[in-house]
Structure formats: C-alpha cells, structure tokens
Amino acid sequence: MLEVEAIVKDFGYTRALNEVSFVASGFKTIFGPNGAGKTTLIKILSTVMAPSSGTAFVNGVDLNKDPVGVRSQVGVVSHKSYFYNKLTALENLSFYAGLYEVDMEQVHTLLSKVGLSNRRFDLVEDFSRGMKQRLSIARALLHDPPVLLLDEPYTGLDLQASEMLRDTLSELDSKTVLMTTHNTERGLELCDSVSILKEGRVVFDKEVDEIDLNEFPDTYRSLVLNSATHR
C-alpha cells in the first residue's frame, strides 16, 4: 500500500507539488500534462529527492524517517532506462542482482516473465525502446518489491511494444502499482483508481467504478484546461 500525505515540493520560488495526498492499493494511474509534477512525485516516492514537507508511507515505512527502508519496498521504471548499453540484457540484470543480493535463478525467471529470454545475450544498445522498457520492469522486480512506480512507461512505444508492456503489467496483480501518464487510453486499461494532477495539485481522485470510462477523456481535458476540482 502507498499512502501519500500532503507532499509539497518547492524549487526556489516555484511550487512543483502542492499538498498532494492520496492512497493507492492495487493499480493506480495518475494522469497529468507535462509539467504537472508527475515525475517529481515519482522521484520523491522513490527517495531520489526529498519533499519540502509532507510524507508518504510505502508499505508502512515512513519516507522521511526511513528512506533506506523505502528503497527496499519499491521498484522503479522511468522513461529513461539507465542500462549499460555495451552489456547484454543478462549482464545488466546480473549486475543489479548483485547489488540486491538476488540469485541468478530470479534473473532468468524475470527475463522469461518479460519475454526476453531469447534475447538475453544481446547487447542492450541493440534493443528497441519497448524491449528496454520490459527489461526495466524485470530490473524493478528483481528484489520482489511490494510497490512498483512507473513514470510514463508508454512514452515512445509503438503499438506492438505498448501491447507487450500492457501484458507484462497485467501480471502484476499482487503488487501495488502507481503509474503516471498523459495517455488516457493506456492509463485506464489496468487501473483500479485514478487521479489527475494539474500544476502540482490533485484535482481528481476516484475509484474506477465511480467514473464513466467513456467520458473520462473529456473529463480529463476539461480539468486540465480549467480549475475545477473533483474529489
């Protein structure tokens, strides 16, 4: 479970996140345009940066009091892969497995899970964007974290790669998943709850069964273009 409590993030005189609060258990999608604060939120929840105020509890661990403990609870997939391009898929995962003290059986299991076993000896520099994203998910799952943070995972993927990524994500039903995106079609496919972030504020927060999925794209556009708030 992920409990976010009144997180604020300031960069000088600019407020990137303003009293952001929500609870996620299951699959939650946070929609928002570029500049809404989505990536900043993911960076805070993954302990890459600290909030200016507020906190979050990741599987019960306080972000501010025990950031090291939080890191053991989360896996992160960003729109940048951060792999070693001159190493193979297997070598990359083996490197990270060593950091997490995970055995090689888990590495091979995850390569199979994301459909890359037959490409494990290929250099990552030869991988497509979609393959790198699937490898990123394997890396994020190496230490079997209960919470997975996905920052715009569909960015730059073609239709086939998007479908394969969706299939991989659909098998994570035992995890708490928080995904940010501006793509309403992909964002609604698997989620249990939805939030909309605009200019650092949560302006919409509902369970999926409380909203009309057919009307949601219009709701999203309306909220992004005006100041209305729906809680």
Kindly describe this structure:
Keywords: ATP-binding, Nucleotide-binding, Transport. The chain has 231 residues and is of the alpha/beta class. It has a domain at 1-67 and 180-231: P-loop containing nucleotide triphosphate hydrolases (Rossmann fold, 3-Layer(aba) Sandwich). Helix content is 32%, strand content 27%. The chain is globular, with a radius of gyration of 18 Å. The relative contact order is 0.18. The model has no long low-confidence stretch (mean pLDDT 92).
What distinguishing features does this structure have?
231 residues; alpha/beta; Rossmann fold; 4-stranded antiparallel β-sheet; 8 helices; ATP binding
- What global shape is seen? globular
Supply the helix-strand structural class: alpha/beta
For the largest beta-sheet, the strand count, sense and barrel status come to: 6 strands, mixed
Number of strands: 10
CATH topology value of one domain: Rossmann fold
Q: Helical stretch count? A: 8
Estimated radius of gyration: 18 Å
Mean pLDDT level: 92
Determine the fraction of residues in helical runs and give it as a percent range: 25-40%
Write out the strand line-up for the largest beta sheet, numbering strands in chain order. 6-7-8-3-9-10
Order of helices and strands: EEEHEEHEHHHEHEHEEH
CATH domain class name of one domain: Alpha Beta
Cα distance, first to last residue? 20 Å
CATH superfamily of one domain: P-loop containing nucleotide triphosphate hydrolases
What CATH architecture of one domain do you see? Answer: 3-Layer(aba) Sandwich
Our estimate of the beta-strand percent is 25-35%
Task: Show unreliable segments.
Answer: none
Organism: Methanonatronarchaeum thermophilum
Keywords: ATP-binding, Nucleotide-binding, Transport
Protein name: ABC-type multidrug transport system ATPase component
InterPro entries: AAA+_ATPase (IPR003593), ABC_transporter-like_ATP-bd (IPR003439), ABC_transporter_ATP-binding (IPR050763), P-loop_NTPase (IPR027417)
